[in-house]
From TrEMBL:
<dbReference type="GO" id="GO:0016020">
    <property type="term" value="C:membrane"/>
</dbReference>
<protein>
    <submittedName>
        <fullName>Protein DMP6</fullName>
    </submittedName>
</protein>
<dbReference type="Pfam" id="PF05078">
    <property type="entry name" value="DUF679"/>
</dbReference>
<feature type="region of interest" description="Disordered">
    <location>
        <begin position="1"/>
        <end position="40"/>
    </location>
</feature>
<feature type="transmembrane region" description="Helical">
    <location>
        <begin position="185"/>
        <end position="204"/>
    </location>
</feature>
<dbReference type="GO" id="GO:0010256">
    <property type="term" value="P:endomembrane system organization"/>
</dbReference>
<comment type="similarity">
    <text>Belongs to the plant DMP1 protein family.</text>
</comment>
<feature type="transmembrane region" description="Helical">
    <location>
        <begin position="83"/>
        <end position="105"/>
    </location>
</feature>
<keyword id="KW-0812">Transmembrane</keyword>
<dbReference type="GO" id="GO:0005737">
    <property type="term" value="C:cytoplasm"/>
</dbReference>
<keyword id="KW-0472">Membrane</keyword>
<feature type="compositionally biased region" description="Low complexity">
    <location>
        <begin position="30"/>
        <end position="40"/>
    </location>
</feature>
<keyword id="KW-1133">Transmembrane helix</keyword>
<dbReference type="InterPro" id="IPR007770">
    <property type="entry name" value="DMP"/>
</dbReference>
<feature type="transmembrane region" description="Helical">
    <location>
        <begin position="148"/>
        <end position="165"/>
    </location>
</feature>
Amino acid sequence: MDVKVETPASPPTSGGDAKTPLLDSQKPDSTTTPQTNQNSSIRQAICSTFKGTAYLASRLPAGTVLAFRLLSPILSNQGDCDVAFKTMTAVLLALCALSCFFLSFTDSFKDGKGNVFFGFATFKGFYPIDRTVTISPEEAAKKKIGPLDFLHGFLSLLVFATIALLDKNIVDCFYPTPSVEIKEIISVLPVANGVVCSILFVAFPTQRHGIGFGADPDGVKSS
């Protein structure tokens, strides 16, 4: 006994109607592709900016950044600040900012055995912290303070301000209910600071390797 399976006939369609859904489904994709690519480009730019900000954080003294990360949630009460917590948070910000600025004037050198020593640059020369070692007057003169040191000190302040503005505890402490203008400033200013500082760090590099920045790879042999 033969069993015949009949395939239901397709409903009649007019010429070209069968292709219309396919074309319609492709049409929005073609029109939204530029917008999608634009959004993707914006996201990539934002990610690159924050990666750049993370790189800039490496230009700050590691101990200062670590102290700020550890103490900011404690002294700011995780963003829920009264007058006392605001005062302590402001003191923390001021001390960390001053540390970033003044440590930009420190440098390091190596003795004949390869031991690393740190010191402070002044207008007259360079003075090691460890007074048991000495550095030649010629090398000390090369390490004295110059205009570039003040530029990098100022850039360090800007980079630290960027990190502070990206810290939710700090923002919530001083601006618990920010206005629209404050929100725009807080969202735009860190990105602008990161871009400007990145350009200036690249355009005006420094040869100093101070406290928290690592040792001078070339080294300076002390007598």
